Amino acid sequence: AQSVTQLDSQVPVFEEAPVELRCNYSSSVSVYLFWYVQYPNQGLQLLLKYLSGSTLVESINGFEAEFNKSQTSFHLRKPSVHISDTAEYFCAVSERGTYKYIFGTGTRLKVLA
Amino acid sequence: KAGVTQTPRYLIKTRGQQVTLSCSPISGHRSVSWYQQTPGQGLQFLFEYFSETQRNKGNFPGRFSGRQFSNSRSEMNVSTLELGDSALYLCASSFHDSADSPLHFGNGTRLTVT
Fold first, then answer.
1. What pLDDT, on a 0 to 100 scale, did the predictor assign at position A16?
2. For A93, which residue in chain B has the nearest alpha carbon?
3. To the nearest whole number, what is the mean pLDDT of chain A?
4. What's the average model confidence in pLDDT over A31-54?
5. Hey, what long-range contacts does B100-103 have (CB within 8 A, 24 or more apart)?
6. Rounded to the nearest 5°, which phi and psi values hold at B15?
7. d(CA A102, CA A95)
8. Quick one: three-class SS letters along B44-103?
């Protein structure tokens, strides 16, 4: 069955430090992978996506994620975080040929001054 | 272009009552999905509609139902409310009829059941 695991529920990190938010998935078919971000009192916004091609994808605000098929992972990284990156981050998977998203339970990133 | 609009933003109901939540998708988007978000559980998929037809349904009891109108607007109804139904309910729309199409979320309706 399709599932998404975000092992870290909370990640505190100091400003300008690097961060990695982990995401692992399981699926018996090919998938599309997404990271969404949720700021307080708002809905989710798409951060980046992997559909095909290069396994490294980037967002406009400095985040990147790498699709690793052998490890079934799609970890999110940023080399230097800002206070404004404080939010909850959700990894999501959708299976090709279907129209159903599965979300992870989210990781709360707290950037400390 | 206006984003996904959910109304109302906040609701307080008592156990046993019913509630209807509304979602207006981005213009041109024909797919609308509903999710329940609770702390620790993440987002749980409720159902998805496309061109007025329910295509997918999550593992929620029959008290949870929805529909989509010809203008793509969608409503979600919860009957016989329970305390555990307290959550943020998110609506999302997308343009394409495929799994690679990103979701666009509204700001949600926060339901509190007392």
1. 97
2. B99
3. 92
4. 91
5. B100/A32, B100/A49, B100/A51, B100/A94, B100/A96, B101/B31, B102/A34, B102/A46, B102/A49, B103/A36, B103/A44, B103/A46, B103/A101, B103/B33
6. -55, 140
7. 9
8. EEEEEEECCEEEEECCCCCCEEEEECCCCCEEEEECCCCHHHCEEEEEEEECCCCCCCCC
pLDDT, residue A1, reads 60
pLDDT in tens, B59-101: 999 999 999 999 999 999 999 999 999 999 999 999 876 778 8
d(CA B19, CA B79): 7
CB A4 within 8 A of CB A23: yes
The predicted pLDDT at position A88 comes to 96
DSSP state of A85: G
d(CA A33, CA B25): 23
- pLDDT > 90 in chain B, percent: 82
Residue for token pair 């990147």: A64
The alpha-carbon gap from A57 to the nearest alpha carbon of chain B, in Å, equals: 15
Which of A42, A91, A100 to substitute to test the interface with B, most B CBs within 10 Å? A100
The whole-angstrom distance between B79's CA and the closest CA on chain A is 24
